[in-house]
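ok here's WG repeat protein:
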Amino acid sequence: MKKLLLLFTLLTTQIFVFGQTKDPELIPVNDRKVGQLGYYLEDGTNVVKPQFCSASYNTNGYYIVSKAEHKYTADGRRIEEHIEGTEKYGLLNSKGQFIINFDNDYSSIIVSNGVIEVYKNGFVGIVNDKNEIITPIMYEDINPLNSSSIIATKHKMTGVINSFNKIIIPFNYDVIWIGVFEKNKVHNFIVKQGEKYGVINHKGEKIIPLSNNKIIHVTPSSIIVEKDNQYGILDYKRKVLLAFKKYDNVEYFGGNEIKFIKNYEEYIYDTKGNFIRKQKIEFLEKSAF
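and the structure:
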């Protein structure tokens, strides 16, 4: 009897899991009679009545909306352009319900990499999906890589925080660039202080001390450096893997290939400085069609 009961429990659990469906997409629609936007489902069912000046499509499971004040003509027609400085932003969930309403007076809302950024009076902070402020609205700029690594600027200095405003890397640098970012995890950052460049890890520990050598990119095993208008590759102990040479540009977008460009040709090396191949840029353009 116990085996039958267990089998029934497993079957009903499977039915429940496979029967679950995601919330349907909300589609913005413009009601020309009132001159405002709302949302409806693909079957035409209205979900949110027209009331917005702007309404986004699905943005990481959220929908960004705005509302503003307008002037009217003498015969009562609304002028489409809103009054400057009056636009406020809100956020809806996938059911069309407000997470952030217009009473918060946010001048902008951005959803990026699972982080809800809110802007007010020229500053930015972070809220959760209950509209609770978890990072104070006190930063001049933020760049969320994920909820654990957010490059932030305060008093014109840059550091790294998490979404709960814990300082991961102190605000000691003029600029911090993302370095190695793989599988949603940050490994290293490029930092600049004055005219000096260095590399730090996600804990703020120095991997490459600050120096006058301009660090262009970092890979999991090496750094790409510009020195006296020449490019080369070093390892993290600053041993030369690829000797410095004059190139027009260098490109690295992750993976194992670094492209050095000169005279419309690409010289491609791996991240350890080993030559892979050379190819003309024209060939790449033709192969794209």
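+1. The chain has three domains: 24-105, 133-212, 214-289.
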